[in-house]
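Re: your question about Acetyltransferase (GNAT) family protein

S., sorry for the slow reply, the queue was backed up all week. Below is exactly what I fed in.
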Amino acid sequence: MAKITLTPLTDDDREQFVLDNQRAFKYGAMEEFGLRDAHYEEDGEIISRKTILRSIRDGAAYRIREDGQIVGGIVLRIDEKTQHNHLDLLFVCPDAHSKGIGCAAWKEVERLYPDTKVWETCTPYFETRNIHFYVNKCGFHIVEFFNSHHPDPHDPETGEEENYEEGGGMFRFEKQMISR
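Result:
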């Protein structure tokens, strides 16, 4: 079995991290919608460079490695005071999908942050692969659905009406951690 590790993102790998993240998110949308997809943030990308860089700036970013080789990335926001932590981004490079890498990376996150009380994350409604992953593989529960009738009150960008055009939306997930 391959060894999955998380290594802190370095400044010299930041640009490639952004590109790899965009490629992985675009791959997911292409798998779901094909070339007709209209769920882009900017410049033909599902997730904008600005969004990724803001997550990196505000969080703890790691590279996911399989036997030392880069196969993905993850960005976390850790609240030391409340231990109500957030998974901002998690991606596995498309050529490494379906090998258990994402699940192994998530287990490593839980090992690195054992004091966490609650993990939270969101994913677009159309990312059925992500929904399966978070609910069935990682133990998260869907707790909210943000859409035009119920915008995300914590994110000024997703609260905009145009971000929910054509029935779009985001699922919010939580994972309650058992006290250790």
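The longest strand covers residues 69-77. The chain has one domain: 4-176.

Happy to talk it through on Thursday.
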